[in-house]
Amino acid sequence: MLRQTFRHIDGVGDRTERRLWRAGVHSWEEFLGSRGRAPVPRPLARRIEDELARSEVALRTGRYRYFADALPPREHWRALREFRDGIAYLDIETTGLSMGRDAVTVVGVYDGRRERSFVKGVNLHELPLALARSKVLVTFNGARFDLPFLRRAFPRMRLDQMHVDLMYPLRRLGFRGGLKSIERQVGIERSEETTGLSGFDAVRLWEAYIRGDQGALDLLLEYNSEDVVNLESLAEMVYAELRLLSLEEGFVTADRLRPVHEPAP
């Protein structure tokens, strides 16, 4: 989808991009091969040509910051496939909701192959190194919760990646509610041990662990691990459906989506 995107170019908004797609210019390659026949003014066409040359180099060399800076945050989901080897699905647990008073207790990170847990007082200090090579962060409500907490906890940690906060593209598809509610709507099941647990339970489990209950920490880590691993399925659904919605100007909403684990016809 990133190679079909023109929104990161100055002067190209949603309407201009759709005009290009409707004219049959669906990719960077097709624009560069259009030989000036693209339906945009010539000065803009020259700017697009120059920018696409830079875009190609940036993508080939993995310069995610180029797209993080230029592409509207609402459209960062478009980079999920091109930067899939640099994705970090991320979720945090805390002692409460107040950034000024509460602390990060657990951070789960999943790269599509391996899930890692970082625990306060154990190995939480290793988190910055674990995220050092990531190019895209995927969260749910991370823009308002996870990332602000992490910036406060780790003022020097690099958090300049592209960020896909799934809560917002899921709303574009018609979903409302929290992560667990949306998981149920699309057919993602939790383990018997964690079904019904919420963020408030995560706080309770941490407090029990601090009092000496190791089993409480084990359950908290399982709960957090499911959070981050399940983000991958949601991200894949978001990418597929928003790509369809964007390119075909279809109208895809929550009631028309297949469960994420149901095979396509």
3D structure, described in words:
- This protein has a five-stranded mixed β-sheet with strand order 3-2-1-4-5.
- The chain folds into two domains: 2-61, DNA polymerase, domain 1; 84-256, Ribonuclease H-like superfamily/Ribonuclease H (Nucleotidyltransferase, domain 5, 2-Layer Sandwich), CATH 3.30.420.
- It starts with 13 loop residues before the first helix and ends in a 17-residue tail after the last helix.
- The chain contains ten helices and five strands.
- The chain is an alpha/beta fold and 265 residues long.
Biggest pleated-sheet summary = 5 strands, mixed
N→C terminal distance: 22 Å
Can you name the CATH architecture of the largest domain?
Answer: 2-Layer Sandwich
Cα radius of gyration in angstroms:
20 Å
User: What would the principal axes of the Cα set say about the shape?
Assistant: elongated
- In total, the number of strands is 5
How helix-rich are the residues, as a percent range? 40-55%
Mean pLDDT: 92
Major sheet: order of its strands? 3-2-1-4-5
Number of domains: 2
CATH topology of the largest domain: Nucleotidyltransferase, domain 5
Number of helices: 10
CATH superfamily of the largest domain: Ribonuclease H-like superfamily/Ribonuclease H
Helix-strand makeup class: alpha/beta
Give the H and E element order.
HHHHEEEHEHEHHHH
What low-confidence regions span 5 or more consecutive residues with pLDDT below 50?
250-254
Percent strand equals: 5-15%
